[in-house]
Write a structure and sequence with these properties.
Layout: H1 4-17, E1 36-38, H2 47-52, H3 64-70, H4 75-83, H5 87-91, E2 96-101, H6 103-107, E3 137-141, E4 147-153, E5 156-159, E6 162-167, E7 174-179, H7 189-196, H8 198-206, E8 209-212, E9 218-222, E10 228-231, E11 234-237, H9 239-243, E12 256-260, H10 263-277, H11 289-302, E13 305-307, H12 312-315, E14 335-343, E15 346-351, H13 359-362, E16 365-368, E17 373-377, E18 380-383, E19 388-391, E20 397-400, E21 408-416, E22 422-431, E23 436-443, E24 449-454, E25 457-463, E26 471-472, E27 478-479, E28 486-493, E29 500-510, E30 516-521, E31 523-528
Parallel strand pairs: 2-7, 12-15
Antiparallel strand pairs: 1-2, 3-4, 4-5, 5-6, 6-7, 8-11, 9-10, 12-13, 14-15, 16-31, 17-18, 19-22, 20-21, 21-30, 22-29, 23-28, 23-31, 24-25, 24-29, 26-27
Length: about 525
């Protein structure tokens, strides 16, 4: 439940930064909502409901407005309706169902909330719904496009988390439900993130870009290079909303559940991470934003967004699937069930505590040889565009082997006694400064003498053919080849003093002992290795 101060702050933020939506077309302060909900069709009611709420009276021959206007306990509500010119709407033949705060509810409004500026038309719903048919949670849309939330818990009914205390009879043009507290409007995810998780909000909005919609654009000619020129129509694209969930939209069909940190937890976790890294990293402000957005947040979101509104019990299912259809295992003991935030398009839970997994910033960084190539046909491969190959033009080959790291390795054959130039360079992304050990796993055939570079600085030279024998690691450990001839060699890496991408290059220098020369790679790892 939000405090009145938080409601006002959220209201101001939404009005200031809101997109062009119906919700934000009304000049309301604060995010305080009591809502009118359109027509509930008549339905049979249970005995318990009839005992707790007033039963229908089919013979009641007056309009809904006639009744509530004469009801003294609703005088504040009806005065607001008249002031906003909505009484004529409720005098007509159209069916309505209203959720009416009584006078006692209005008397509890803090002085900081200006009821006089509240826009009543925002709270009228065009939907027809019978609350007695409610099971679980249901969204109802108002005329302004905002969604109110109805919920049934333990045989009690709630409107935006406020208990419904009375049900009216059926009048000629509708019915009402009474509440004795002012229900608070529920933000959608984007509105909530903007106020309470500004870092996450910035991440989501930063991805937005405009793209040419060729289906709606008209070709009008060609430029000097022969490219088609369009009478252009652009559309706004947000990769996050395309991949995960449209956090800014509210519909009856789409709901989501988020498992997230609080802003305070996130900042504290980054502080702890900075101290673990040490050196120039002393607080959350030192953790590069590019690392947060390209590494940390995608991991959190992949493991924390689910379709539909899920209970804690449902989140503990061993068959839990995230919103992208991938299996996720959650430790529900880390989720605070009392942290539940009900939004107009779903639900948010927070962790009791949040920590950054050390493996994301201080663990081994490994590239399999197969990750460097693309298949373009049956047993036909090319180097990926991100891989820089210079010198001899040689297409790579993927060779399957149960003895390799992931069941295969990559070979580029250079032929017997090759004397030309050849190099392969690729990148490890988002590496924090530290002392590392580079480990190169390969087969001893084909051979070749290679110089290994890190960011253009040589760190060692090696003849692949020597992998056939037991080798000493730079740590003193002994590396032994397996029966298929796979082994590894390593080098110290001590020139990474700044955060960023790390370029690894293998450059052919001379033929090896074997007559058949070439380059082969099972894997390469960068392993943090403190002194």
């Amino acid at each position: 439940m939000f405090s009145s101060f938080q409601i006002n702050e959220m209201g101001r933020e939404i009005i200031r930064y809101g997109q062009k939506k119906k919700l934000l077309n009304f000049p309301w302060k604060g995010l305080l909502v009591w809502s009118f909900i359109l027509a509930l069709i008549a339905a049979s009611c249970t005995k318990d409901w009839d005992e707790h709420y007033a039963p229908d009276d089919p013979a009641l021959n007056q309009t809904l407005w006639d009744y509530i206007e004469a009801e003294e306990s609703f005088s504040t509500f009806t005065n607001l309706v008249v002031q906003n010119g909505l009484d004529s709407l409720l005098k007509g033949n159209q069916q309505f169902t209203l959720f009416i705060p009584n006078n006692d509810a209005f008397s509890k409004v803090p002085d900081s909330i200006d009821i006089g500026e509240f826009i009543m038309s925002h709270l009228i719903s065009p939907n027809v719904f019978n609350i007695r048919n409610l099971s679980g949670l249901k969204q109802l849309q108002t005329l302004a496009g905002k969604f109110a939330l109805l919920e049934k818990v333990d045989e009690m009914y709630y409107f935006d988390e406020v208990e419904i205390i009375h049900s009216s009879p059926q009048f000629l043009n509708g019915r009402y439900y009474e509440v004795n507290q002012l229900p608070l409007a529920k933000p959608n995810f984007e509105e909530y993130f903007r106020v309470y998780l500004p870092g996450l909000y910035s991440y989501l909005k930063y991805q937005t870009y405009d793209s040419l919609d060729k289906s709606m654009s008209t070709p009008i000619g060609f430029d000097d290079n022969g490219n088609t020129v369009y009478d252009s129509v652009f559309i706004t694209i947000n990769p996050f909303e395309d991949q995960y969930f449209p956090v800014s939209e509210e519909t009856r069909e789409d709901y989501a559940s988020f498992i997230l940190f609080t802003q305070e937890q996130y900042t504290s976790a980054l502080d702890e991470m900075a101290l673990q890294i040490g050196g120039a990293y002393q607080s959350y402000e030192d953790i590069p934003l590019v690392w947060q957005e390209s590494v940390l947040l995608p991991v959190v979101l992949d493991n924390g967004i689910f379709a539909d509104i899920l209970s804690i019990e449902e989140l503990s299912s061993p068959t839990l699937i995230n919103i992208n259809g991938e299996h996720v295992v959650l430790d529900v003991a880390t989720i605070d069930p009392d942290s539940r935030v009900l939004c107009s398009n779903g639900i948010i839970y927070h962790f009791y505590d949040f920590e950054v997994d050390e493996s994301l910033y201080s663990g081994e960084n490994k590239r399999e040889g197969e990750s460097l190539i693309d298949s373009v046909g049956v047993d036909y491969y090319v180097w990926k565009e991100s891989v820089i190959v210079q010198g001899e033009i040689v297409e790579p080959t993927k060779i399957r082997s149960d003895f390799a790291s992931e069941g295969g390795y990559v070979v580029a054959g250079l032929g017997n006694s090759f004397a030309g130039t050849y190099s392969v360079e690729f990148t490890f992304q988002n590496i924090f400064p530290a002392r590392y050990r580079l480990e190169w796993g390969a087969n001893y055939r084909p051979s070749g003498v290679y110089t290994v570079y890190i960011n253009d600085e040589p760190i060692g030279e090696y003849d692949i053919f020597n992998l056939r024998s037991a080798l000493y690691s730079v740590t003193g450990e002994i590396f032994s080849p397996n029966s298929a001839g796979f082994n590894k060699v390593d080098f110290w890496v001590e020139n990474l003093t700044e955060y960023g991408d790390v370029r690894v290059k293998f450059e052919y220098k001379a033929k090896g002992v074997s007559k058949s020369n070439g380059f082969n790679i099972d894997y390469v790892s960068l392993i943090p290795s403190p002194l």
